[in-house]
Amino acid sequence: MIISRSPLRISLAGGGTDIPSYYKIKESYFISAAINKYVYVSITEPFEKGIYLKYSKSERVQNVNLIKHQIIKEVLKKEKKINKIEITTLTDIPAKTGLGSSGSFTTCLIKSIYGYKKKFIDKIDLAELACDIEINKLKQPSGKQDQYISVYGGVSEFRINKRGIVTPKSLNLNDEIIEKLEDNLLLYFTGFSRNSSKILNEQNKRTILNDKKMIQNLDFIKSLAFEIKKNLIKGDLKNFGYLMNEHWNYKISRSKNMSNRVINDYYEFAMKNGAIGGKVVGAGGGGFLLFYSESPAKLRKAMKNTNLKEVRFKFDFEGVKQIL
Fold first, then answer.
1. What is the dihedral sign for C-alpha 21, 229, 6, 311?
2. pLDDT value at position 199?
3. Residues in CB range of 96: below 8 A, 6 or more apart
4. Is the per-residue pLDDT at 64 higher than 90?
5. φ and ψ of 172, to 5 deg
6. Quick one: which of 209, 184, 186 has its CA closest to 290?
7. pLDDT, tens digit, for every residue of 250-300?
8. What's the whole-number mean pLDDT along residues 14-28?
């Protein structure tokens, strides 16, 4: 049996600039952090010939081309003579909640397949193969953030040049800053699961059409990411919180689908009860709200009056790995 795990992530800065329609003309810069919530993939060889899949649904087929799960189908199509395999997937957090589960699942599945076939794949090739499957093969309007942070882990910065080449690098924050971030970042599930494709498709189309307002918005988001990096490195986390709030205000102006009245009310409530800044994690429209607070106990106590569920986390510094 092969078991692998891949971390989910929270986006800290520059999200949205990692989509090809933007970085091919402007280049990308973003900061992301892997967290200790995971996607798991196990692979075994069944007694009988066939492809057995267990995720939120179950499939049993005799041919790869008959698989309904599109990511599994595309990953297995790259491998020859796989006609006897059982794949099971589990997650700590439900899909479509903004924590990058699709990218994490893809990297985890590829890592597991390579382990099953007793083959090696290095980090950059693993991340790029996952990106190729989601962006090029499946035509998803997604960027490269989720795949790369799930592979590299940590609190990391990424640059993408106009040719799509990604340069990953750890921010190398000291232990005191890491611990303070883990203490003061609070993550809450809004109760809304959403399909990010609608929001990302809108951004993609407007960028391709050279929509001045959209491109200026993403330019500002990227410049803000560099400011956020400076504050993280020097440990000025209070100002980091203020910049998060500024980032959120620009992000919601990108699309009317980015937020809704209920999410806005939760956000305002948190800001009045100890949060300095925050954002919806991921493309928007639902999923998780992330807040930074210098008084987390006060904020946590106040948020208990809402029906939001807190998910406590620490950072993951290993990235995708085979654990069995």
1. negative
2. 58
3. 193, 194, 195, 196, 287
4. yes
5. 55, 45
6. 186
7. 878 776 766 788 889 999 999 999 999 999 887 556 689 999 999 999 999
8. 93
Tens-digit pLDDT profile for residues 128-166 = 999 999 999 999 888 999 999 999 999 999 999 999 999
- Nearest residue to 15 (alpha-carbon basis) of 136, 144, 167, 170: 144
| Whether pLDDT at 196 is above 90 | no
Query: 268 exposed, middle or buried (CB, 10 Å; 0-12, 13-18, 19+)?
Result: exposed
pLDDT in tens, 107-136: 999 999 999 999 999 999 999 999 999 999
One-letter-per-residue 3-state SS of the chain: CEEEEEEEEEEEECCCCCCHHHHHHHCEEEEEEEEEEEEEEEEECCCCCEEEEECCCEEEECCHHHCCCHHHHHHHHCCCCCCEEEEEEEECCCCCCCCCHHHHHHHHHHHHHHHHCCCCCCHHHHHHHHHHHHHHHCCCCCCCHHHHHHHHCCEEEEEECCCCCEEEEECCCCHHHHHHHHHHEEEEECCCCCCCHHHHHHHHHHHHCCCHHHHHHHHHHHHHHHHHHHHHHHCCHHHHHHHHHHHHHHHHCCCCCCCCHHHHHHHHHHHCCCEEEEEECCCCCCCEEEEEECCHHHHHHHHCCCCCEECCCCECCCCCEECC
CA distance linking residue 244 with residue 235, whole number of Å: 15
